[in-house]
Amino acid sequence: MWGMIATWRMALEGIQKVTPNLEVGGTAGDAIEGAIKEVEDFPYFKSVGYGGLPNEEMEVELDAAYLDGSTFDFGAVCALKQFANPISVARALSAYKVNNVLVGDGAAAFAKAHHFEEKDMLTDRAKIHFHNRLKDIEREQLTPYAGHDTVGMVGLDASGDMVAGTSTSGLFMKKPGRVGDSPFIGSGLYVDSTIGGATATGLGEDLMKGVISYEIVRLMKEGLSPQKACEKAVSDLAERLKRTRGEAGDISVVAMNAKGDFGAASNIENFSFVVVTSTLAPTVFRVHPQSDGTMRHELATKEWLEAYLEERMKPLEVKE
Ligand code: ASP
């Protein structure tokens, strides 16, 4: 058995690209890095890599992490600027015994010393989004913290090794130096090849409060299926946050266990995920939370898939 699961429809092309290799015995590590790089390189996904939306100083600061569920090798970069593929830098850091998590200038110095591709990650399109958001805030008093979609993936290869990875530009118009859950082991991602793995997307400040990816793996270890573990982790955290803080931010998660069974859950209506296994071609599902805390997974239609890309690629008007 082998497989991969990822947050959001944007992971589809990346997963399609690496599937043939995974199918013939490729490693989960190569699959995760390869698929996430594909998402990072695509300029129209405005929450990951090139074309990612900037912070309030109009700088693109990227977070990424890589965790090997067999060796527990872990690497992460936080607030990395001007490098094309944060996931590859994170993977390279995972090979060391210490200095596995680097931030800002330290992360950039490592990336430079190891000859990772330097790139201006701020696109003209991202500048228009920035400009338009400023106009909206002026006019409508919108909160700047909207518009986020981290790519997170869990992979299982034919040898039984599992790897998880994340990559994000974080929250649009965040404070310089702000880091969410995505690069943090246990919060944005967790994987143990003997059990399974999970990864999260949503409001990082809230996801971290539940260390939600670890929690899902812990629940799977207790015997819950990936689907039940995702549902329980999301509803427990959302309830806990609502009870004591009055509200819960967006919480969306995916998981796969060591047998290739998978699950996904969310407390919002528009979450989607991509999955491939030895018995299922790369497929996009939309997640619909039900009132009893369970989820309905709907196969994404061709129309929905096309509309998604069209929406992301349509020409942008500059607001006056
Ligand atoms: N979790 C990410 C963060 O808080 C955002 C996202 O999932 O899009 O940085």
Summarize the structure.
It contains 9 helices and 13 strands.
| H/E element order | EHHEEHEHHEEEEHHHEEEEEH
Percentage of residues in DSSP E strands: 15-25%
- So, CATH architecture? 4-Layer Sandwich
Global outline: globular
* CATH fold type: Glutamine Phosphoribosylpyrophosphate, subunit 1, domain 1
Q: Major sheet: order of its strands?
A: 4-3-2-6-5-1-11-12-13
Straight-line distance between termini: 54 Å
Describe it for me?
It is a single chain. It is built from 9 helices and 13 strands. The chain has 320 residues and is of the alpha+beta class. It has a single domain (3-313), classed as Glutamine Phosphoribosylpyrophosphate, subunit 1, domain 1. A 9-stranded mixed β-sheet has the order 4-3-2-6-5-1-11-12-13. Helix 3 (86-93) links the parallel strand 3 and strand 4. Helix 2 packs antiparallel against helix 3 (86-93) and helix 7 crosses helix 8. The radius of gyration is 18 Å and the shape is globular. 52% of the residues are buried. Aspartic acid binds next to strand 8 and helix 6. Aspartic acid binds at residues 47, 148-150, 168, 170-171, 180-182, 201-204, 207.
How are the secondary structure elements laid out?
Layout: E1 3-7, H1 12-23, H2 28-41, E2 62-68, E3 74-80, H3 86-93, E4 101-103, H4 104-113, H5 124-140, E5 151-156, E6 162-168, E7 189-192, E8 196-202, H6 204-207, H7 212-221, H8 226-245, E9 251-257, E10 262-266, E11 272-277, E12 280-289, E13 295-299, H9 302-313
Parallel strand pairs: 3-4
Antiparallel strand pairs: 1-5, 1-11, 2-3, 2-6, 5-6, 7-8, 8-9, 9-10, 11-12, 12-13
This protein binds aspartic acid.
